Amino acid sequence: ALVAVAPELQFEEVLIQTEGDRTTTPLSQAKTPGVFVSALREKLLAGEVDMLVHSMKDLPALPFPGLVSAAIPKRENPLDVLVSRDNLPLRLLPSGAKIGTSSPRRTASILRSRPDLQVTDIRGNVDTRVAKVRSGEYDATVMAWAGLARIGRLSEIAEELSPVMFIPAPGQGALAVEIRSESAELLGLISTIDDEVTRLTTTAERSVLVGLGASCSTAIGALATLEGEQLLLTAELGDPATGAYESVSERVKINPKQIQLAEQLGLSVADKLLSGDVARKVGLI
Ligand SMILES: NCc1[nH]cc(CCC(=O)O)c1CC(=O)O
What we know:
Elements: H1 2-5, H2 19-22, H3 38-45, E1 52-55, E2 67-71, E3 80-84, E4 98-100, H4 104-113, E5 118-120, H5 126-134, E6 140-144, H6 145-150, E7 159-160, E8 175-180, H7 184-190, H8 196-212, E9 219-227, E10 230-238, E11 245-253, H9 259-274, H10 277-281
Parallel strand pairs: 4-5, 4-6
Antiparallel strand pairs: 1-8, 2-8, 3-6, 3-7, 9-10, 10-11
Helix pairs in contact: 8-9
Residues 55, 57-58, 126, 143-144, 146-147, 172-173 line the site of ligand PBG.
């Protein structure tokens, strides 16, 4: 998309390994946020690269000094999907089937839909996780539609999971193109691929994280949609130990330029979640 809007620019891809790629520790136990982004941001600040493309859901929710999200391109599909042996849908998996996920949010959703299944940690990139299902090491795994789409493996999907039971992570499926704040010329070029609706909806979703003071171990999902002039935000806090959950939905009349209203909506939803029982059970308050 960037080559199309800026044919005069030369793009050189630089692959940078991050702690998140290397570590085998579940992300939910990471001590610092941003295991996928710290190494990248160091190279951007040092001028070794001029632009980063992040999965938005890997980004800590607070802005980073000296850097800006120059573009948030249009999000396609934010949902979670099931990859399973014999392509069975979730409801047809045999009782006791072994489901691989290291995500507290997905664990809570699985236990809620199918308390008879066994959830165990799984790590590795998307290819590795799919291979672990195909080899029979796991009966199924839950992953992001977007992760499979980016490596051309949508045909692995057994079932698209409804956001009613499997609310996605805040920002899931969206990308963020990050540059140094002083790169004004680059900002002008890159911002042409910004999608203001995606920016608005993902801002509302990520503000829930800010309001909760959430960490990688918080089972929090959030999904916002713009329906006409209404921004609708649903967020869900789960308890991965029991599958208990609390859901809050709010809406606000908005035009897509009103980013601050989207932030306020996220903070308001977070406040409501914080006053509930699940927030106490999982130690958020
Ligand atoms: N958890 C790691 C991660 N970070 C981003 C994606 C891909 C989806 C996206 O970019 O939103 C994934 C894989 C997954 O959740 O299955």
